[in-house]
Amino acid sequence: MANLVYKRVSTDQQSTARQDLVLEEAGIEDPVVFEEDPGTSSRLHPLQRPKFRELLTYARPGDTVHISEMFRLVRGNQHILDVLDVLHRDRLALRIHDGAFSAMDLTARHPRTGELLSTVKFMVQTLAAAGELQRDLQRELTYDGLRAAEAKGSKGGRRPAVPAAKTDDVRTAYLENRSIAALARDHGVSRGAIRTAVADLLPDHTAAEEGTPAPELPVTLDMPGKVADYLRAADLESAERAALDQGTVVRRGQGYTLRVSAVPAVHRQLLARCQPLDGAQGVPAVPAQRKARREYEDRVSSLAPIEP
Question: 54-71 burial, b for 16+ CB within 10 Å, e for fewer?
Fold first, then answer.
């Protein structure tokens, strides 16, 4: 029976030092460690995180999954119940070594029905709700801070890849027939970032180039936050990554939308990247994530079709 240790941090500025201490004090024998890449978002469903999926693939019936505290693995109530269902299906035990869940056997099932014990489910839901309340309060404070910053003239979202101080130089060089690829190399940014900086110049400029088809113009689409969170953790091409990095965050109730400006081809590529949110082999789809992906798919599908 193997001891499988799972570790994760929320940003690449954090370390696993505290988790390491808790797990070391637990005295786990011959641990097999699975550690997510730094900054793997807690918004990403556990069953879709690369290292946790690798752990489940490696595990065999009777193995035990060890985590320092519950919220290293899950974010909310539904995440917990989804993970417990998979652990039960694969006959794996779960051991939490710190926090409110550490004294509970979360895998306890009714001996005849096989369902999660009602007392366990109640405690899971109660404690998870408390954790979600804490995060919601933090989100509200963050939102208030963003509104205060906007009132002072600050703009939300990430800074443009091409700084404002260099935008005029980029535009001048473009009008002097410097190519987008060359400008991207000169400034160390993606071609998409250069296209964004000269977007309003593209139609007039390209029309003068005889025999050259006009390039696609950037289109702004609202990407649901659940899709954006998944894509940020994915392996993207430079143009795709630049489109996300330059997106503007728009708050929508408790969630958010990322307003992304990119040429239609990049939007289609991003849509293809998040296909796993519809469910992959052996991994159940999360309804909220699947709904978010389909909302983005509807918006991308509304763009002009690709010409043959």
Answer: ebbeebeeebbbbbbbbb
